[in-house]
Write a structure and sequence with these properties.
Shape: globular
CATH topology: 434 Repressor (Amino-terminal Domain)
Largest sheet: none
Number of helices: 5
Helix content: 55-70%
CATH class: Mainly Alpha
Radius of gyration: 11 Å
Structural class: mainly alpha
Order of helices and strands: HHHHH
Length: 75
Amino acid sequence: MRQNGDERLLKAVGQRVRRLRQAKGWTQEVLAEVCGMRREYIADVERGVRNITVMSLRRIGKGLGVGVTLLLRDA
């Protein structure tokens, strides 16, 4: 099945979140705790199945110590 542009964007953002999280040596549980979110939400974002809001993206970026623009760059 071919992915549309929205699906590709969500997957690209999710992959960026995963790479940044892993670079810190964090589990999904640690990132979720830092961001004040549920681990399942972080897992959905990383898999690209969650249509993440701008505010949630901001929280995740803040938790990772990066700006939203970095999470979206080249996505």
